[in-house]
């Protein structure tokens, strides 16, 4: 690589900048990291993917003299691209755990989305933007959905009007990007916005090349799209190879004499396939993580590393996130486990069994200790990086008084003439039922700091009979964070049903995609025909 094809990445060690690095490398550029202020001042192209919390980022930047160098670099109009927090830090201050002073280059205060009127916060997913001026790098995203994930945003005003190059609408109209001369910053994530995002990065890195982006069909993005997520349940088969498997009501073994683990393909290949098929997100669930320690499970980390090199939409991973002591007595905190997943390329982690224990303890004591995996990981990486995966099972009762958990009235009687059902949370891949309902769990984990819920249903899993609409309504009504509906998709109509009848933000499916019964594009086409906005 020549010096001109080297991009300087400002990584102050707060989290995962791997995705940005991968996207830059994918475009043929080399990456070097900032170690000292001079590295900023000498950069030819500087990319700043801010991660973590505003206050801790400002601390690190100020303590190392990086803040001053950054201000000088930007004031000299050198080529700069800030991403997410890398945009927010340019403003005067943020309300995130604050007020906290920012770099003060752009007038305005970064505030939290107002969730009091039913808005789901964080703003997670693919949204459209309105360009407000010519910037030189944004033309390919006009009318397209791009990926956002944040709880705080800056608002346009007379004082910062000169800077604003696009806005986005979610609850209110906020600043999606700023541009002035060679200085750009975006609230969204180009490195996670598929081909459209890569085109933006290319426009920044080599302004002289003509856009290679084939214009996509619709180009009419106007609001937050409903997401279609492909899920890969992954585990080692009996010969020790990591395979994508799929259960029927969580039973992943073939009902043959050999009783082997159902093998539906290779994780990295399938993830790549779903990315090119149009999946808005890919989720890996390490389904034996509850008994096999994930940091001992290096193939899973390898799967993430390889996948994130070629898949430029968000990657979530779950399985085995908890405190752990190995056979040699070495203790690993849940934060170390999650950090390893993030370092390997995950954008979000998902917690199953450990979230149930955390919620049970919290409901019993009413005290947030700060020690649960949800609290620890969301404090360091932000709420939006913490998904709680719920594995509920239906339990039928004659009347709501029979249980202390929230019940739902059945539309048709249960197997023994019951009129109500409650959803019991389970752990260890459905093997153990716990004394807590999905409704109670969802509320508790939101309070503890979860940013999203992945809502499975053991009864519906692999059945292809549609999502459990009652359950999804119960949980979307319980929380104000986004809910991903999962389990039971068997036809395109099941996706429109879940979005028409519930306020789920995303629908996740596994079996129909693995068995190639329904391509992701057909799901999206069907949703568009039914007036449901999706990324096309
Ligand atoms: O408890 O933190 O170690 O996390 C374990 C994770 O692994 C949890 O998220 C749990 O849901 C998942 N898991 C554990 N055992 C199984 C299993 O199937 N035996 N898979 C399992 C859960 C459910 C969905 C599935 C949908 C859609 N899989 O993710 O993909 O139901 O399927 P469908 O479209 O084919 O109906 P921890």
UniProtKB/TrEMBL annotation:
<keyword id="KW-0511">Multifunctional enzyme</keyword>
<dbReference type="GO" id="GO:0009507">
    <property type="term" value="C:chloroplast"/>
</dbReference>
<feature type="region of interest" description="PRFAR binding">
    <location>
        <begin position="487"/>
        <end position="488"/>
    </location>
</feature>
<dbReference type="InterPro" id="IPR050064">
    <property type="entry name" value="IGPS_HisA/HisF"/>
</dbReference>
<dbReference type="InterPro" id="IPR004651">
    <property type="entry name" value="HisF"/>
</dbReference>
<comment type="pathway">
    <text>Amino-acid biosynthesis; L-histidine biosynthesis; L-histidine from 5-phospho-alpha-D-ribose 1-diphosphate: step 5/9.</text>
</comment>
<feature type="binding site">
    <location>
        <position position="320"/>
    </location>
    <ligand>
        <name>substrate</name>
    </ligand>
</feature>
<feature type="region of interest" description="PRFAR binding">
    <location>
        <begin position="461"/>
        <end position="462"/>
    </location>
</feature>
<feature type="region of interest" description="PRFAR binding">
    <location>
        <begin position="389"/>
        <end position="391"/>
    </location>
</feature>
<dbReference type="Pfam" id="PF00977">
    <property type="entry name" value="His_biosynth"/>
</dbReference>
<keyword id="KW-0368">Histidine biosynthesis</keyword>
<protein>
    <recommendedName>
        <fullName>Imidazole glycerol phosphate synthase hisHF</fullName>
        <ecNumber>3.5.1.2</ecNumber>
    </recommendedName>
</protein>
<feature type="region of interest" description="PRFAR binding">
    <location>
        <begin position="510"/>
        <end position="511"/>
    </location>
</feature>
<keyword id="KW-0378">Hydrolase</keyword>
<dbReference type="GO" id="GO:0016829">
    <property type="term" value="F:lyase activity"/>
</dbReference>
<keyword id="KW-0150">Chloroplast</keyword>
<feature type="active site" description="For GATase activity">
    <location>
        <position position="189"/>
    </location>
</feature>
<comment type="similarity">
    <text>Belongs to the HisA/HisF family.</text>
</comment>
<feature type="active site">
    <location>
        <position position="391"/>
    </location>
</feature>
<keyword id="KW-0028">Amino-acid biosynthesis</keyword>
<dbReference type="GO" id="GO:0004359">
    <property type="term" value="F:glutaminase activity"/>
</dbReference>
<dbReference type="InterPro" id="IPR011060">
    <property type="entry name" value="RibuloseP-bd_barrel"/>
</dbReference>
<comment type="similarity">
    <text>In the C-terminal section; belongs to the HisA/HisF family.</text>
</comment>
<dbReference type="InterPro" id="IPR006062">
    <property type="entry name" value="His_biosynth"/>
</dbReference>
<dbReference type="Pfam" id="PF00117">
    <property type="entry name" value="GATase"/>
</dbReference>
<feature type="binding site" description="covalent">
    <location>
        <position position="84"/>
    </location>
    <ligand>
        <name>L-glutamine</name>
    </ligand>
</feature>
<dbReference type="InterPro" id="IPR013785">
    <property type="entry name" value="Aldolase_TIM"/>
</dbReference>
<dbReference type="GO" id="GO:0000107">
    <property type="term" value="F:imidazoleglycerol-phosphate synthase activity"/>
</dbReference>
<dbReference type="InterPro" id="IPR017926">
    <property type="entry name" value="GATASE"/>
</dbReference>
<dbReference type="InterPro" id="IPR014640">
    <property type="entry name" value="IGPS_HisHF"/>
</dbReference>
<keyword id="KW-0456">Lyase</keyword>
<keyword id="KW-0315">Glutamine amidotransferase</keyword>
<feature type="active site" description="For GATase activity">
    <location>
        <position position="84"/>
    </location>
</feature>
<feature type="binding site">
    <location>
        <position position="456"/>
    </location>
    <ligand>
        <name>substrate</name>
    </ligand>
</feature>
<feature type="domain" description="Glutamine amidotransferase">
    <location>
        <begin position="9"/>
        <end position="205"/>
    </location>
</feature>
<dbReference type="InterPro" id="IPR029062">
    <property type="entry name" value="Class_I_gatase-like"/>
</dbReference>
<feature type="active site">
    <location>
        <position position="233"/>
    </location>
</feature>
<dbReference type="InterPro" id="IPR010139">
    <property type="entry name" value="Imidazole-glycPsynth_HisH"/>
</dbReference>
<feature type="active site" description="For GATase activity">
    <location>
        <position position="191"/>
    </location>
</feature>
<comment type="function">
    <text>IGPS catalyzes the conversion of PRFAR and glutamine to IGP, AICAR and glutamate. The glutaminase domain produces the ammonia necessary for the cyclase domain to produce IGP and AICAR from PRFAR. The ammonia is channeled to the active site of the cyclase domain.</text>
</comment>
<keyword id="KW-0934">Plastid</keyword>
<dbReference type="GO" id="GO:0000105">
    <property type="term" value="P:L-histidine biosynthetic process"/>
</dbReference>
